[in-house]
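Two proteins were folded this term; both appear here.
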Amino acid sequence: MNNRTADYEFTIVVPLYNEVENIGELERRLGAFASSCSLRTCVLFVNDGSTDGSLEKLVDVCRCNQHFSYISFDRNYGLTVALKAGIDNTFSKYVGYIDADLQTDPEDFELLLRHIGEYSMVTGVRADRQDSFFKKMQSKIANSFRRMMTGDGAKDTGCPLKVLHTDVARKLPLFNGMHRFLPALVLLQKGARYMEVPVHHHPRTAGRSKFGLGNRFWGPLADCFAYRWMRRRYIEYSIAKSDTDE
């Protein structure tokens, strides 16, 4: 296998769109964590068609850090596609996800990794969330509606700090907005379960948020109906016998 992530136990996927101001801090924080993590860890950046010079800076950063790699899209596809591409290009046992805005701490991955042996996914819950009242109110309403529609019981699906078994992550069905439904999608798999762990949260200090009312509030509400439609048609099977390896 030629993919470098196969040499590691844990790959952190970092979707990135126009975050040139954050790349230096990402390099410092993620590099320090990769060196100290309890598992052999690498970082996979997914450049989602940035137009602000992020790609050029990523190339330099990855050239200087042996545990860093990147893939880059030909145009902007959105967070869901970037996350799925990162998962598809990960071959370590575990895969994690963190946003490039660093509003969550890479160090908190250790809090999640403590439990990943027992669960299919461990996800953060933003304790003392450092966002505006309006943003928190949008998320609260959207989360309540999503819980009612999916029955997943998750408190904070928008927290950008998650760890999954890579084989579980690869089975997640792809649709726009998938990243908001990871607990519900994981639970579709037979025997799968997830755990939530409180993690730190910080205000954004550089760059600009890519989310507004349309994709933070109305989008998730509409996606709930897409999830309900997909859940009724979700396909899963187990092979009882095969001679393909003989």
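Next, the second protein.
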Amino acid sequence: MQRFNHFITNIIGGLAVLTLWGCHTDPEIKISIDRMEQSLFSIPADSVEAAIPHLRQHYGRLFELYNNRIIAIGSSVSPQYPQRLTGFLTDFHMYACYRKVMAQYPDVADLEKELSEAFSRYHKYFPDHDIPTVYTIISGFNQSISVDEGLLAISLDKYLGRNEEYYIQLDMPMYLRRLTDKPYIVPDCMKALAYTEFPDTGITETVLSSLLYEGKAAYFVSQMLPDIPDSLIFGYTSAQMHWCKNNTRQMWTYLVEKKMLYNTDYLTIAKLAGPAPFTAFFTRESPGRAAVWLGYQMILSYVAHKKPSLNELMNNHDYQTILNEAKFRP
């Protein structure tokens, strides 16, 4: 099922780096981040080929998937691979990007603390789910968060801040550049986790199912990070949040009167749920994905009325029943 967000999930391999501490009835998770970008970019240019066996052993499948899918230079067993990896690591722009990453993120203790708190809540809600290994990487401005099979990688080159000159040179619009500020990293991790751990199993995607699925993902983030504002979950300015709150009823009325809830047209769903400077069916003052805010409000109403556990909610794909029992009346 197509999902409109800036997350691209990949299988990332490696060994779990975590411990448990605290009381026996409510253990907490401690995340320790493995900084792969440091391991790679600290290798002298004339020593890259000699370092490959160690990198392959240490990072396991992550190393191959990073090479094949993230930076796309091919398998590490290719005869041309040492030259390609050396070229990537010594590329002027990639090395300059690495220097910027290290200047902005000389250590990641604050991210480790935030992720530890979030994954402690995750472990409490879903004790049978694996806690992901966490890495930081440089993706060449590709993926923001890569996650699968209980493993997660953060591309720090995608979080250098809205005023980063590379983003401007790449013609990244401001509505996306805002999402590169550091406070978005942990919410993005939790949203990516929601998408991969609780994929939608619906056979036919409709506007309704898409908005409610995205609303569940937003609600999941709010439960993992209960202290963050909705603006960080949705990537909105204060003015955009104000617009959504003031136009919830108008958005709902429009979708109902235009009989759009059960529309299966891909482009219609993309215009409502995909990233954009504004939502095409609403006013130009609306933020992109404003209809997803509407889906989130429907989920909040459903939770208020039915009081499901988070596990029940995330595994509930009966969107018509959710709508009926939400008694949503904006």
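The chain has two domains: 18-196, 201-326. Residues 1-26 have pLDDT under 50 and may be disordered. These notes refer to the second protein only.
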